[in-house]
Amino acid sequence: MAKPKWLPIALGIAIFVFIVGAGIVGTGIYLVSRQVSMTSTTTEDPEAAFAEARSKLAGQKPYIEFEENDLESKPIVHRENEREGRPPPGPYALRRRTAVP
To answer: Are 48 and 39 a contacting pair, CB within 8 Å?
Structure first.
């Protein structure tokens, strides 16, 4: 009886998909690990940890600002922090300009 010819093809495709998937997952893990920095802190003095984190951002204006203790009001967006020449993030970046005849 002849061996089915589709079995090695299906097995090859499955191995290829597994290798490519593992490569994509590995690349994603590598890139995320390079962009994220985590530090641990003790629970004894969290205020000192927050003060240290705030001191790193001293002098910077937040992009979106809420009134203190009032999350229901409209946020203040500081657009002067945007880089010129770049579209805003979100669905507006997907719009394309079309020439009108």
So the answer is: no
Instruction: Give the tokens for residue 64.
Output: 């979106």
Within 37-84, residue ranges assigned H as helices are: 46-56
36 Cα distance to chain centroid = 10
Residues, the chain, total? Answer: 101
Tens-place pLDDT, residues 48-100: 888 888 888 888 777 787 777 776 778 878 777 666 666 555 555 445 555 44
Beta-strand runs (E) in the chain: 64-65, 76-77
Closest among 83, 73, 49, 78 to 61, alpha carbons compared: 78
- Quickly tell me which residue has 């890139």 as its tokens: 31
